[in-house]
């Protein structure tokens, strides 16, 4: 009887452990969940025409405009994020094909 109870308890523990969700630690930049900007390119509009943000991976980007190309990292949760660059951190928001970057003024970029 003890062996049966021990086996039953072991099975219950194993089932509960296997049901533990790995999805609870959701990586906000995971391309599988759709929260990644990886591989997207965004072109500046109006005063920012000629500027380009390229998201080269789930955590890295490049920025080109007047002058040399700069690179940095970013975090993104599916709608908002932060660009981390040597010039500072800049908040941004994505709504459909529009990227708004708050870098002292609101800059608008369109996804290509």
Which key phrases capture this entry?
globular, 112 residues, 8 strands, 8-stranded antiparallel barrel, 1 helix, alpha+beta
> Average pLDDT across residues?
80
What's the arrangement of strands in the largest beta sheet? 1-2-3-4-5-6-7-8
Given the structure, what is the number of helices? 1
**SSE order in H/E notation?**
HEEEEEEEE
Radius of gyration: 22 Å
Q: How would you characterize the largest beta sheet?
A: 8 strands, antiparallel, barrel
- Taken as a percent bin, the fraction of beta residues is 35-45%
Unreliable residue stretches: 10-18, 20-33
What would you call the shape?
A: globular
Number of beta-strand segments: 8
Coarse structural class: alpha+beta
Residues in helix, %: 10-25%
How far is the first residue's CA from the last residue's CA?
Answer: 68 Å
Query: What is the number of domains?
Result: 1
